[in-house]
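User: Quick one: structure for sequence A, then sequence B.

Assistant: Sequence A:
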Amino acid sequence: MGISGGYAVEVRQLRYFVAVAEIGHFGRAAESLHIVQPAVSKQIAALERELGLTLFDRSRRQIRLTADGEAFLPHARRALRGIDRAEKAAADLAAGGAGIIRIGGARGLGRRLEDILAAFRRTHPNVMIQLTTSTSVPDKLAAVAAGDLDAAFVSVPPRTPGVAVHHLWDEPLLLAVPARRAATAAGLVSLADLPLARAPREEDPGTFDLITNACRAAGFAPRPGPALTHAQDILAGPVAAGHCWALLPSSAIRADSAAVSFVEPAPPILMPTALAVPHPARRALVTGLLAAAGTVVRDPA
C-alpha cells in the first residue's frame, strides 16, 4: 500500500520506523512487532532510500534519530493515525456499525415502520437512515437489485433477479366505502356496481392482482375507478361522495368519518408485506435491519 505524494512508501515501513524511533533499538522494536530484526532493518532501509533521507544515526550503540528523522517522525505518526482511523471506519462499515443505510419505504406501513427503524437505531446508533418513499414496487425492487437501495419494504413482491424477499407480516385490507354502503359492504359483491379506486397495476402489480382475484372470487370483475395516489384525498373526495370504494391497509386507516366507513371484508383479504434486500447480501447493515424487523414483528408494542 503506497502513500500519495510521489512516494511508494508502505504502511508497514511507517509502522516499523515509528516503533524503532520510540523504542530506540532495532531488536526490541522487532520483538514488539512480532517479526524478526532483519525484516525491520530491511524495510527501514527501503524507506530511507525511497525518501532520500537518513532517518537513524547507526554509528552509536544506542541508535538515534537524525535531524531528518526527528522532523519526519510526527508526519509518520499522523499518517498512521489517519490510516488507523480509516481501517476502523472500514471495519465498522463491514460490521454494520456505522455509515448510511438506504431504505425504500412505502405508504401504509404505519406504526410498524416507525418501530422497526427505532429498533434498528437502538442497535446501530451511529448509522444514518436515508428513507425514501416510492409507490412503485418494481422501481424499488430494481433499485435494490442495482445496489441503489440497501433494502425496501414492498407489498406482494414479484420474483426479481438479484433480490431476496423476507416475508414480515400479512396486512389486513379494509374496505373504505361510502357510509351508506357500510351495512352490506363486507360481502364484496355488493360493491360490484361501484367503481374501485386503486393504484395502477404497473405501480404495484402484486396488490392489484390480489384485489382483482378477491373480487373475482366474490363473483364479479371490479369496475375501474380513479387512480389511488393519496388515500386521504380519495377518501375525502370520491369515496365520501359515494362515487367509488377502495381497499386500504388497516395500519393506514385513521377513523371513520360521517361520510366514509371502514369495513372488514369477509373473507379477510391479507396483503403480504416483505423486506426486499440484495442477494447475495452486500452489507452487514442489512442483517441488522432484518433483525430489527423480526423483533418488531415477533414482539409488537
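Sequence B:
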Amino acid sequence: MDAPAAPVDGLYREHRPWLFGWLRRKLGCEHRAEDLAQDVFVRVIQGRKQVRANEARALLTTIAKGLVVDHQRHAALEHAYLAYLAAIPESYAPSPEAQAEQLQALVQLDRLLDGLPPKARSAFLLSQLDGLTYPEIAERLGVSLSSVQQYMVRAMSACYAAFHV
C-alpha cells in the first residue's frame, strides 16, 4: 500500500529544521540557508505534487541540491563579474544600476546555456567566445556542419526568446 501524501504544512513543520541544518552545513551561511530552505518549500508548493511522507526527505534534498548548485553558480558568476569590473579603469566602469542589469543578464544567460544540450551549448560558446567558424566547431565537436548550424539555431533562438519575448 502506498504511503499517504503529506500536506505541505506538515512537511514544513517536520522537515524544515533538518533541511535548514543541512543547508547551513553546505553553505556555511545561516541567512542563505534560511532563504534556500524557504525556496525549497516554495518549489514544492509550486510543483503541486503529492509528496508521500516516506519520500519527503529525498524530494526535499533533491530540490535543495539543485538550489545549492544554482546559488554556487550565481556566486561564481558574480565573483567573476566583480573581478572583471575591478580590472577595468574606473572611468569605463558602468553605473551601479547598469552593473546590476548586466549581472542579471549574465545570470539569465547562464541559466539559458545550462538548459541547452551539451553540444549546442559548446557550439554556441565556441562561436561566441572563441570566435570559431562553423566548420572549425564541427571539427572540434566531431559533428557535421549541418549539426553545428542546428545547434546554433537552437541556441540563438533560446537567446532571442529569453531576452526579447
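The chain has a mean pLDDT of 90. The domain at 8-87 is CATH 1.10.1740 (Rna Polymerase Sigma Factor; Chain: A).

User: Thanks, that's what I needed.
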